[in-house]
Model the fold of this input.
Amino acid sequence: TVLSNVFTVLNVGHDENVYKEAIKIEFNDKNIVYECDKNVSIKYKNIEIGNILMDFIILKPYPCLLSICCHEKIPRRLFDRLERCKDILEIKEGYVVHINSRTWFLR
Done:
């Protein structure tokens, strides 16, 4: 899979941007349609009042969201943002890719 390929080569210890660039290369190699570092608009009464930066919005073949986290603990707000983006974009699946000093996994 995309993520296992990236982590087999890079392992742990890099900044989020390094992993994001490698994931983009894998997505392109596999013809996965995605958007990276996309601002998702937050609206109130149809007026944009802010946005949430989403690491990856995968459009095809399987719509889902990916958020990359390289902290030892995943901040709760990351899960909250992911859930809000899922609701706004009407995408059912969303995952946090957690990379810490020992390993990586999906949550």
